[in-house]
Amino acid sequence: MPAAFAVFTAGLLAFHRSVPNSVGRLGSLLEAFLPWLGLVVVALLGRALLCRSATALVALLLPAAAWTYLFGGLLLPGAKPGARDLVVVQHNVSDENTDPAGTARVLADAEPDLIALQELVRPALPVYERTLAPDYPFHTVQGTVGLWSKYPLTGVRVVDIKPREITETWSRGLRTVVHTPYGDIAAYVAHLPSVRVRASGLASSWRDESAGLPGRAVAAEKLASVILLGDLNGTVDDRGLAPLTSRMNVAERGFAFSFPAVFPVARIDQIMARSATVGHIRTMPPTGSDHLPVTARIAVR
Question: Helices 100-109 and 125-132 meet at what angle, rounded to 10?
Answer without folding.
Answer: 30
